[in-house]
Specification:
Elements (H helix, E strand, L loop, with lengths): L2 E4 L6 E4 L3 E6 L3 H4 L4 H4 L5 H4 L2 H13 L3 E7 L10 H4 L11 E2 L2 E2 L22 E4 L10 H7 L4 E7 L1 H14 L3 E5 L3 E2 L3 H16 L3 E3 L1 H8 L1
Parallel strand pairs: 3-4, 3-8, 4-7, 8-9, 8-10, 9-11
Antiparallel strand pairs: 1-2, 5-6
The chain binds tricarbonodiimidic diamide.
Length: 222
């Protein structure tokens, strides 16, 4: 156990590292690599690449400090019985969830595109949460896993800032977790949504949590 103080907005936050988990949200090939789901939605996936190296630095530090590391993956069963029609039929992308893509069927569990990028691949013993929704708590056992480990604080990284990271932070906030979001460890296809998403988290005295960055968190962890 180590108590550390992390410089953040709206103010410094003191955490016990043994009660803190690092959560990597949806760092999947389908979102980050050219030709995957993110690109079929019309997005420039290179905008997400900037988050990979800072995430890797935090991941390495968390592992050195024996912090709980959790990875999430957004996706669905091969028969897609857990995919709402509204989600599958949304918009008019050139390929939809379940359709064949360059990395197998898009956002389908077990397909190469659904898997996590090699740079941030889970180590043995790190729970991987397969989630059908945007939030990591919805229809998953994440809350049980965190409760069993006595986790109170979450450092939430991943993509995209305003979609799955934000939804997860909001879900966590309602469940009583203190969330710290390192600004350079998340990214969006829409840079302005990334900026505003972070401002929303730390506004009103930190209504959803705290915003820091990898440099300040690494400095605090030592
Ligand atoms: N993980 C996640 O954010 N899922 C999305 O679909 N994000 C988009 O921004 N499209």
């Amino acid at each position: 156990m180590a108590r550390v103080s992390i410089s953040a907005e709206p103010g410094a936050i003191d955490i016990d590292t043994s009660r803190t988990a690092l959560i990597m949200v949806d760092m999947q090939r389908d979102f980050l690599q050219p030709g995957g789901f993110g690109e079929t939605l019309g997005n420039d996936v290179s905008l997400l690449a900037v988050a990979v190296a800072p995430c890797r630095a935090l991941l390495d530090s968390a592992r050195r400090h024996d912090m709980l590391v959790i990875h999430t993956r957004e996706g669905h069963r091969p028969d897609m019985t857990d995919a709402p029609r509204t989600k599958v039929e949304r918009g008019s992308p050139s390929a939809r969830i379940g359709d064949p893509g360059p990395y197998g069927r898009i956002l389908i569990r077990g397909e190469p595109g659904h898997d996590l990028i090699p740079e941030l691949y889970p180590q043995a013993g790190e729970p991987v949460i397969d989630k059908p929704g945007k939030g990591a708590f919805y229809a998953t056992d994440l809350h049980v896993i965190l409760s069993n480990r006595g986790i109170e604080n979450l450092v939430v990284c991943g993509v995209t800032t305003e979609v799955c990271v934000h939804t997860t932070v909001r879900e966590a906030n309602d469940r009583g977790y203190r969330c710290i979001v390192p600004s350079d460890c998340c990214a969006s296809y829409f840079p302005e949504f990334h900026e505003v998403g972070l401002r929303m988290i730390k506004a009103q005295g930190g209504i959803f949590g705290w915003v820091s960055d990898s440099g300040r968190i690494l400095a605090a962890l030592g």
